[in-house]
Amino acid sequence: MSDISQMAYLNGQYLPLSEARISPMDRGFLFGDGIYEVIPSYGGRLVGMRAHMQRMRNGLDAIGIRVTIEDQEMQEIATRLLQASGNGNLGVYFHISRGADLTRMHGFPEQITPTIFAFAFAIPEAGTGHPDSAKCVNVVTCEDMRWRRCHIKSTSLLGNVLHFQHGREQGQDETILYNQHGHITEASACNVFAVLDNRIVTPALDNQLLPGITRQLVISILRDFDVPVVEDTVTRQQLREADEVWLTSSSKEIRPVVSIDGQPIGSGKPGRYWHKAMTLYAQHKFDY
Fold first, then answer.
1. Residues 6 or more apart from 273 whose CB is under 8 A from it?
2. What span, in angstroms and rounded, lies between the C-alpha atoms of 190 and 188?
3. Which of 23, 140, 146, 264 could form a Cys-Cys staple with 268, CB 3.0–4.6 A?
4. How many whole angstroms separate alpha carbon 82 and alpha carbon 288?
């Protein structure tokens, strides 16, 4: 495979990533004023491209960024970056900020051109559902201290970064967040599923959590194969007592959680529901 760091797309041009330059007056740099997406791919095949593009459009609309680039062109950019990187296990990162202005002010400037940036990077190989291939994770829990529009995939990720670092500093892989009522929202970089009394449950979508594309695909695939999934409240206590807990994201797919706050979940190993979900996801993720 060629060096995946070699090519980037920036405002209509393909160039070496090391040569990509964005103005320090760009509002993405100054304010985190932008939207991003990460689309996974395996062997050159993108997963959930249409859903990722729709979520990006929704985010751009929500914060009032207007772009003229069409989804087909985004697909072509992704394809070219993947081909240049060897079409392996890759994620394509798209980042659209409001653009650069000569004046730093909080209000939206008029008549500036959005900055569009993309590059490809390595992600873990695809899962199979076999227990021996499971990438198990250990997590801690923490009160969710982020802003109240977490359904927008904003580039303003400091809150998520601090929560992730909280887990890392305790030697854990992730941090699962709960609100002031003790209800689970999501993890710092993943959505959360739990198996409670033989029911697969994931927190319902609202402004407290991101509408994850892998979350969406997992729900759709399981339901299409007659495996019920409930979108409902999950409390912190229920999570700790769950038979299984999973984390989902575009680059991690479905990861079984084997301990929370130092206590094992279920048997402390990937469970049978995870095996079923991961097997179905591996077989059908390109179909949606």
1. 195, 200, 243, 244
2. 6
3. 264
4. 20
Q: Please give the Cα distance from 203 to 230 (Å, whole number).
A: 8
Residue 99, Cβ neighbours under 10 Å: how many?
A: 23
Which domains are assigned to the chain? 7-122 (3.30.470.10), 131-287 (3.20.10.10)
Backbone angles phi, psi at 155, to 5 degrees: -75, -5
- What is the per-residue pLDDT across 176-209, written as a single tens digit (0 to 9) for each? 999 999 999 999 999 999 999 999 999 999 999 9
If we measure between CA atoms, which residue out of 73, 156, 161, 159 comes closest to residue 116?
73
Six token digits for residue 15: 């160039």
Distance of alpha carbon 239 from alpha carbon 15, whole angstroms: 46
Alpha-carbon distance of 242 to 245, in angstroms, equals: 7
DSSP H helical ranges for 27-98: 27-31, 49-63, 71-84
Q: In whole angstroms, give the CA distance from residue 186 to residue 189.
A: 8
Return the active site residues. Answer: 153
Q: Convert 186-210 to b/e letters by CB count within 10 Å (16 or more is b).
A: bbbbbbbbbbbeeebbbbeeeebbb
40-74 tens-digit pLDDT: 999 999 999 999 999 999 999 999 999 999 999 99
